[in-house]
Amino acid sequence: RKRCFRISTGSKQWDSILNEGFQSCSINEVYGEFRCGKTQLSHTMAVIAQLPKEKGGAEGRVAVIDTEGTWRPERIVQISERFGIDSNAANENILYVRAENSEDQHEQLCGLAEPFASGQYRLLIIDSIMTHFRNDFHGRGELNERQGKLGQHLRKLSQMAEEFNITVLIINQVQSDPGASALFASADGRKPIGGHVLAHASTTRILLRKGRGEERVAKVIDSPDCAEKEATYIITTGGIND
Ligand code: GTP
Ligand code: MG
């Protein structure tokens, strides 16, 4: 595992619970309720990945698979300013693809093997992993088929992470069950979707939640080499910060 590296989140406290960032050659999953900063983390790391190693980066290009239409090049401009890098170059170093449905998402992923073969890419972001899989398959009747297709997608993802020495960041949502009683609402609201198939594929899982005021909290849920610690962070114009 000598060649593996880590990419910073933009927050020193968050990095500290991850042994200095999200690791390459593996799938890192960040999940949590809306407005916790999942998409902001994606933008921040897309800039940091391009920075030199001493600044938490990996001096590499970035690929983004967007399923929700929430990617904003203007945010990359603002975050680049914080880190003092050329914002046009930063956007040019990001290969953006929009996935229209789950099948397209898988095809787009397979299509990235070609640019990744250049050896220049160090980060792949999928925001978010389950949107289409959730929309394209309905009810219990199609659950097996969905999980089968999802498993295939995730196997490809982890194989590519290893082969090309890339940090994979996947964004996920939490279960929302309006039928659940208020008593269990908070517990139910903190389970990621995707079932065992996704749980098995993710090497490291991070739960995000809102804290006091503007504060947000990241918690390590499942990791082979990090304790289940919490860290606070904030969302700024320059991205994720302390
Ligand atoms: P969903 O995709 O809806 O599940 O949410 P998310 O977790 O992806 O949330 P997102 O990353 O979009 O974070 C939204 C939060 O970021 C909001 O509270 C915004 O106010 C904040 N935010 C977005 N852009 C900026 C910015 O330029 N400056 C500051 N200070 N905050 C921002
Ligand atoms: Mg989002």
TrEMBL record:
Q: Which GO terms describe its biological process?
A: chromosome organization involved in meiotic cell cycle; DNA recombinase assembly; DNA strand invasion; meiotic joint molecule formation; mitotic recombination
Q: Which GO cellular component does the record give, naming just one?
A: condensed nuclear chromosome
Q: Which UniProt keywords apply?
A: ATP-binding, Cell cycle, DNA-binding, Meiosis, Nucleotide-binding, Nucleus
Q: Where in the cell is it found?
A: Nucleus
Molecular function per GO: ATP binding; ATP-dependent DNA damage sensor activity; DNA strand exchange activity; double-stranded DNA binding; single-stranded DNA binding
Superkingdom is: Eukaryota
Name all RecA family profile domain ranges.
3-174, 181-242
Q: Which family does it belong to?
A: Belongs to the RecA family. DMC1 subfamily.
Mind telling me what this protein is named? Answer: Uncharacterized protein
The organism is: Cladosporium halotolerans
Q: Which residues of the full protein are shown?
A: 93 to 334 of 338
